[in-house]
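Schema walk-through. Below, the input block comes first and the output block second. Nothing else is stored per chain. Lengths vary across the set, and this one has 146 residues.
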Amino acid sequence: MKLLFKKLNEKAVIPQRQTPYSAGYDLCACTDEAVVIKAGETVKIHTGLSAELEGEKNAVLLIYARSSLASKFGIAPANCVGVVDWDYRGELIVALHNSGREDFTVNNGDRIAQLVITPILTPEVEEVTDLSDTERGAGGFGSTGK
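--- output ---
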């Protein structure tokens, strides 16, 4: 399996893992000028890249927050986790939301999110009138304790 990237912009940065055991490949901003994300605002940040997971159709690319940006500045993907389906070949764009109290500036080349490859299951869908019983049953939020 190979993770292929196509540069759509000469300034784009090919994602890298920062350590041998990092799960995510850092996605970097590809901008002509600094982009300010005002407090409470969502802005689409371009990466200048498109991607393909060669040889593995039962996997998905997921775009997650970088923990440092989320915990220190409140900067994270607006949809929590971005899903890049296997057959998508367009530009990877990250909709970053600023839930912090201060404006945040993104510069060209800044690491803005991380790309994680995850296997997926695609079972057949079937409508039924009953599901199997379990000890928990339909117990929802808090039903198993704190």
